[in-house]
Amino acid sequence: MTQMDEPIQDQDQNREVAAGYFRSFKQAEKAVIALRQAGFAQIGVASRKSQDAEKLAEKTDAKAGLAVTAASGAVLEESGGESDYADPQDVEASLVAAHIPEIQARNFQQQLQDGGALVTVQTVAARAAEARRLLESEGAESASDSSAPADARVAEPAPSSATLPAETGSQRVIRLHGELLRVHKERVQRGEVRLRKEVVSEQQNMTVPVSHEEVVVERMPAAEGAPAANVSAGGIGSEAEEIRIPLSEERVSVEKQPVVTEQVRVGTREVQGAESVHEELKHEELNVESEGELTPEEQQELRARNQQPRRAA
Questions:
Q1: Which of these, 101, 43, 48, 89, lies nearest to 67 by C-alpha position?
Q2: In angstroms, rounded to a whole number, what is the distance separating the alpha carbons of residues 65 and 45?
Q3: How far apart, in whole angstroms, are the C-alpha atoms of residue 111 and residue 24?
Q4: pLDDT, tens only, 113-157
Q5: The domain containing residue 86 runs over which residues?
Q6: Does any domain span residue 195?
Q7: Start-to-end Cα distance in the chain
Q8: Alpha-carbon span 126 to 15, nearest angstrom
């Protein structure tokens, strides 16, 4: 019998959920494949965008959702060995119901807002530590601590990925918070330019030289006593003689022909500029006050600690 065929001894058998956050989907994909090879069957993947989780689930043969059960922690096994998968809309509530520490569950929900994928594994308590170690070996962040029993982890929250030193004996920790300004750019339409053609009429004057023919009559004296030629027998005036001379002239005709006078190329270009963003950010600073009888050296040390410059975020 392989590890995939885990025996179901009791429908209410105690089971645990291991979870790991991955900044890249490639890492999450490798982690799911490694979990499959190790014999874990009930694996869920969640992300900020449901379509991203569905694509990752399809590639890795996992489920799009959180591999968690009801608050009782009992697995609802079917014939195929699959458990219920919760809708990842409220990651924190679903993980807390599966006995993930509240702070850890809140961290997972916050990390998902920045992208990436959350891989959850539901298995028997005996193999939960193995699942967590496997997730961490594949690059998971803030994997759940398996050293304490489930009930103890609910009552005693685990630290987040950005932990401060744990409180011990005479030491206590005060966490100072500050706001971080994140600027996002979004491309929007700021206007519109419309180009169209208009017909403009204008008067144009042109002088065209033209020519025409006129009759020119010249009189030349005849030689004295020269015989008349081409005179009929009837004498002078018996036949009428007429000469027709055609006259021509040039006339102007106008024809308009459309031609291309200019070409206009239209496009857009990227112009870089700068815009100032002004926002008020808040942060917490430590204020040290003393009471009782302290030595001058102790008071001076407290004042020096109170005046230490705050580290830049």
A1: 43
A2: 5
A3: 12
A4: 888 888 888 888 888 888 888 888 888 885 444 333 333 333 344
A5: 15-155
A6: no
A7: 54
A8: 8
Instruction: Using the predicted structure, report yes or no on whether residue 74 has a pLDDT greater than 50.
Output: no
Q: Tell me: the pLDDT tens digits for 189-243?
A: 989 999 999 999 999 999 999 999 999 999 888 777 767 666 666 666 666 678 8
In the chain, the amino acid numbered 12 is: D
Do 180 and 283 meet the contact criterion of CB atoms below 8 Å apart?
A: no
User: What total number of domains does the chain contain?
Assistant: 1
The identity of residue 65, as a single letter, is G
Q: How many residues are listed for the chain in this entry? A: 313
Quick one: pLDDT at residue 258? 93
pTM: 0.39
Q: 119: which strand partners?
A: 20, 45
Q: Is 73 contained in some domain?
A: yes
- What mean pLDDT comes out for the span 172-198? 88
Tell me, yes or no, whether 27 lies in a domain. yes
- What's the confidence (pLDDT) of residue 266? 92
Q: What DSSP string runs through 181-250? A: -------------------------------B--------PPPTTPPPPS--TT-TTSS---------B-
Task: Tell me if 137 is assigned to some domain.
Answer: yes
